[in-house]
Design goal:
mainly alpha
């Protein structure tokens, strides 16, 4: 066999590749959050994963792609968790409750992801939209349709065109950012109960709501 000829490589194992990808993303998310994007060396990620640095490049072409993949993977897991929580539910208000509880619980368990959101906004300003809000744009139609159904059932009120249910997504996003930057230690269950109370009932009494409508 000539020097230029190569033996066939071992067939790729999709399961092994998937497991290694997840392991790399787990370590990368943790280190990016702890040390910051600029200070995180791919060699350290490789060492933590027990692989050669070249292996990282086999999965991700550069550090930027690895960082963004870690953000995207976190959002995919969040969506999967919410979808699983509401899968067997048909009542819209209960869907809202479960989604809020799951959202806050997810970020209680994945604090690193919130730090990555802040770094993404600071370091990747050329992106048309941060990954979190791009994900929300893809999903917001489903939530708007649910709110319209709630109105049709006589259980929800019409909202001004510029104040659609997306405002509640902004409310939740602000909550997890505030938790992160202040180091607030509050259980997701307790916080979800407060958020749901304001989400469903607002801050005004029945009489004051009537006065404001008039």
């Amino acid at each position: 066999m000539g020097d230029s000829e190569k033996k066939p490589g071992r067939p790729a194992n999709p399961e092994l590749r998937s497991q290694r990808t997840e392991a790399i993303l787990d370590v990368a998310a943790q280190l990016f959050a702890e040390q910051g994007f600029a200070s995180t060396d791919l060699q350290l990620i490789a060492d933590r994963c027990g692989v050669a640095k070249g292996t990282i490049y086999h999965y991700f072409p550069n550090k930027e792609e690895l960082f963004l993949a870690a953000v995207d993977r976190g959002l995919e897991q969040l969506n999967a968790a919410i979808d699983s929580a509401i899968a067997d539910c048909t009542d819209i208000l209960e869907i809202y409750r479960r989604a809020i509880v799951t959202f806050l619980k997810y970020f209680e368990q994945h604090r690193d992801l919130v730090e990555l959101f802040l770094q993404e906004r600071a370091l990747f300003k050329d992106r048309k939209m941060p990954a979190y809000f791009a994900m929300h744009e893809q999903k917001c139609g489903e939530w708007q349709a649910m709110h319209q159904e709630l109105i049709a059932q006589g259980r929800g009120r019409h909202l001004p065109p510029d104040n659609d249910p997306s405002i509640f997504n902004d409310f939740l996003y602000g909550t997890i950012i505030a938790n992160h930057v202040t180091g607030r230690q509050v259980s997701s269950e307790e916080q979800a109960a407060k958020v749901i109370d304001i989400f469903f009932h607002g801050i005004l009494s029945e009489s004051e709501r009537k006065n404001n409508r008039e």
